[in-house]
Amino acid sequence: MSDRTPVFIITGEQGQCKTTFLHLVLGFTVGLNVRVRGVISPGYVRDGRRSGFALIDLATGEVEELSSIDPDPRCEIHGRFYFRPEGLAFGRRALAPPDPRETDLVVIDEVGRFELQGEVWAEQIDRLLAHPHPPMIWTVRRRLLNTVIERWKIANPVVVDVGTASVMATAGDVMDAVWEWREAQTASGAPDFPLPGGRIAGDPPLLADAAAGASPNAPVILRRCYGPEE
After folding, report:
1. Contact in structure between 41 and 66 (CB atoms under 8 Å)
2. Please, is 149 exposed, middle or buried when counting C-beta atoms within 10 Å of its C-beta (0-12, 13-18, 19+)?
3. Cα–Cα dist 115/13, whole Å
4. pTM of this prediction?
5. Angle, nearest 10°, between helix axes 167-187 and 18-29?
């Protein structure tokens, strides 16, 4: 199944709102009871320049500071950023290989030059891809796109360019992949996971459900539901 399970790669230039696009896509999925694991990493800006990143565990909604440009002797230095040990440990726990029977979607924001150098989330990505895994969404800078695909031998990449792609269409494609994953898990003997409106795995996704209201159990960071115009 892993060879056919897609990895959606949201790509664009630096500062082109890849994380925002990802957040919008995830906003559609939470109302459909999608069980998401992984991390999203919104950035900070100071004096018009990127100054650091937070890290959000999508399974729990917990937040930890990941990195900053402010020097700190306790931190790992990658590029011009100081990565806090607490943030790295937090992210590595969030990116541990999930139980495929209990996870529909894995998110990594982002996969970049540090990972290509074997740092930050590289080991976690290797472990995730070594196991049967659900659909994934990664964010990757455009100039690194082909290198990332080749480095991890992604057999089924779905490239989503934020400059031209539709949030709604991308969310629909992600949900199609989630439904296929759930069908495969059901066929392997895993119990059906209940969906809104009495549907079970195999029924077509209805993104309108997300617009009607997200699951109250969703992490607070994703409880807002987005319309395609936002």
Report:
1. yes
2. middle
3. 17
4. 0.81
5. 50
Tokens of 129: 């891809």
pLDDT tens-digit readout, 41-81: 998 888 888 899 999 999 999 999 999 999 999 999 999 99
Please identify, in words, the CATH class of the domain defined by 7-41+101-222: alpha beta
Amino acid identity at 175? M
Q: Encoding tokens for residue 124?
A: 């976690």
